Amino acid sequence: MSNSNENQRKVAEFLLRIKAIQLSPEQPFTWASGRKSPIYCDNRRILSHPAIRTYIRQIATASIVERTGKPEAIAGVATGGIALGALIAQELGVPFIYVRASAKSHGKEQRIEGDFTGFSSVFVIEDLISTGKSSLSAVDALRDAGLEVKGLLAFFTYGFPDAVERFAEKECPFFTLTDYSTMLEVACRSEYITDPQKKELDGWSADPVTWSNKHQTV
């Protein structure tokens, strides 16, 4: 899109404003992996803000169509990609399915929910890319079910190089509405963070493991 950089900055500002992205270098968050991080991202908060939800739905839809054309169907990645993925599918007027993190332990023990007998390809919606492992696990499940994956859109990425490598290895094109470096630019410009805080955030981005180890409490 011709004003894609401005759109990225606008999405970043929205995510900071509604605290979908929270920054706290002094009191780091603990991720599920046990690592310490100065950033926490929960894009499900988008759903609680109608004007922002509408903007992100529209910008996501336009970006998908511009890059790949109108998809046959949308597949959301559980759980963060389900509701927003369904909204994008509604905007496009196409079917929606979603992919569980793991197969159900009861019933038909399926991983993909919904009726995918009427189409052969999907575009995937994810809320966040960190390592890329959960996103690509969903891509694998869709491909195993016989569906072609046209690409994947996430709302935010931390920008870890290993995630980019994993997507390349799986030959799955992806893009995001905004990213870590854009978010930091907006956070500094809008005075969400100070210069010393930015230095800490830059340090984490450059080497998350070392940063986490340094901030582990004794």
Description:
This protein has 218 residues and is of the alpha/beta class. It has a single domain, classed as Rossmann fold, CATH 3.40.50.2020. The chain is 44% helix and 21% strand. It has eight helices and ten strands. The chain has helices at residues 4-17, 50-68, 80-92, 133-144, 161-169, 180-189, 195-206, 208-214, and strands spanning 21-23, 29-30, 36-37, 39-41, 74-77, 96-99, 112-113, 121-129, 148-157, 174-179. The strands form three sheets. A six-stranded mixed beta sheet has the order 7-6-5-8-9-10, sandwiched between helices. Strands 1-4 form a two-stranded antiparallel sheet. Helix 1 crosses helix 6 and helix 7 crosses helix 8. It is globular and about 55 Å long. The mean pLDDT is 93.
Would you summarize the structure shown here?
The protein has 218 residues and is of the alpha/beta class.
Output mean pLDDT. 93
What structural category characterises the helix and strand content?
alpha/beta
Number of helices: 8
- As a percent range, the share of helical residues equals 40-55%
SSE blueprint and pairings:
Elements: H1 4-17, E1 21-23, E2 29-30, E3 36-37, E4 39-41, H2 50-68, E5 74-77, H3 80-92, E6 96-99, E7 112-113, E8 121-129, H4 133-144, E9 148-157, H5 161-169, E10 174-179, H6 180-189, H7 195-206, H8 208-214
Parallel strand pairs: 5-6, 5-8, 8-9, 9-10
Antiparallel strand pairs: 1-4, 2-3, 6-7
